[in-house]
Write a structure and sequence with these properties.
By secondary structure, this protein is mainly alpha-helical. The chain has helices at 9-24, 29-51, 60-75, 81-103, 108-128, 130-133, 158-179, 182-192, 194-199, 204-230, 240-253, 260-278, 283-297, 301-321. Helix 2 (29-51) packs across helix 11 and helix 3 (60-75) runs antiparallel to helix 4 (81-103).
């Protein structure tokens, strides 16, 4: 195992801290589950935006597909959670694979328009097919069987939190291993210099197709987890606003970092929750002001700022020795 593959102490502490939340904040587990799900969703976007350099405005399409797949299966009698989760990932992945061929045509602006168009298309389909999806009223009556036949999804979110945490950790570990492999390095090389990547023989199209499909699978899993933990699907899961908020979270946390999505999701949702309680009428103003300040003075997001702080002692030693 190479050094870059080893789990750092801070990473281990991060996941242990998430497990400890179950005991420390037993009344906040529903909110904590939603932060984790959003963090997983943000990680899926970071794979194609931060690591792959592919811009998108419609990533909520895959999140919504996963959410509706899990919800529709449950309302039609398929209520086993793990198989419902797997089915949601497969449906979202199939949609990602098919749309990836459109995405590879053209530059950044074309990709923005295509992804935005796909997202709006699915939103309108879900809105129009109200007999099937519930339309603006959402998909109600979603009931999920006991996890492993023994653990019920209770109102306090205890089972759903551990379920979401376990699934998130497994998916994160797989993704982390992928990004530290030669495949991940090839993906970064395309982002940094696509011309050079093509010149040295990297199969760029195959790599982009694979990462876009995998990213869609992750987003589908996140959408299914939201449905299974809340037992409700609203039209909001396919909205453009959800894609836009995800971009903001990545900017806050830091792109091209495995934990930027989780940090950004946690900060954004906690700040949004506090501000909306303190100032319900103008909380958007304060949130916008915070984002402007962070964008101007915290390049690379929170994790980027922390990284620069950690490097300060080394720079000072070099300066003193010079």
């Amino acid at each position: 195992m190479q050094d870059r593959d080893r789990w750092k102490p801070a990473e281990i502490l991060f996941w242990i801290a998430l497990l400890c939340l179950f005991f420390v904040f037993p009344t906040k587990l529903v909110f904590a589950s939603q932060i984790l799900i959003t963090g997983l969703f943000a990680l899926s976007l970071d794979l194609i935006l931060g690591f792959g350099g592919i811009v998108t405005l419609g990533h909520a399409a895959f999140f919504g597909l996963g959410a509706y797949t899990a919800g529709l299966l449950a309302t039609h009698g398929w209520q086993e959670p793990l198989s419902g989760l797997l089915a949601a990932g497969l449906v979202a992945g199939a949609a990602g694979y098919l749309s990836s061929f459109l995405l590879l045509r053209g530059g950044d602006l074309t990709r923005l328009m295509i992804t935005l168009g796909i997202g709006l298309l699915l939103y309108e389909i879900a809105n129009s097919a109200s007999d099937f999806t519930g339309g603006v009223d959402g998909l109600q009556g979603v009931e999920i069987d006991k996890l492993f036949g023994a653990f019920s999804f209770d109102l306090y979110g205890r089972t759903s939190y551990l379920y979401v945490l376990g699934v998130s950790f497994v998916l994160f570990a797989v993704t982390r291993s992928m990004m530290h492999s030669p495949y991940g390095l090839a993906l970064r090389s395309f982002r940094d210099n696509s011309t050079r990547a093509l010149a040295i023989g990297i199969p760029v199209k195959a790599i982009l197709t694979n990462i876009y499909t995998y990213s869609a699978v992750l987003a589908g899993f996140a959408g299914a987890l939201l449905t299974q933990s809340t037992q409700f699907v609203s039209l909001d899961v396919l909205s453009f606003e959800r894609s836009a908020e995800l971009l903001i979270m990545l900017i806050i946390g830091g792109t091209a970092t495995m934990y930027g999505g989780f940090v950004g999701a946690a900060v954004f949702m906690l700040v949004q929750d506090r501000l909306s309680n303190i100032n319900p009428q103008y909380w958007n103003f304060w949130l916008g002001l915070l984002l402007v300040v962070m964008t101007l003075y915290l390049r690379g997001g929170i994790l980027g700022g922390l990284g620069r702080l950690a490097q300060l002692p080394g720079r000072r030693r070099k300066k003193d020795n010079a």
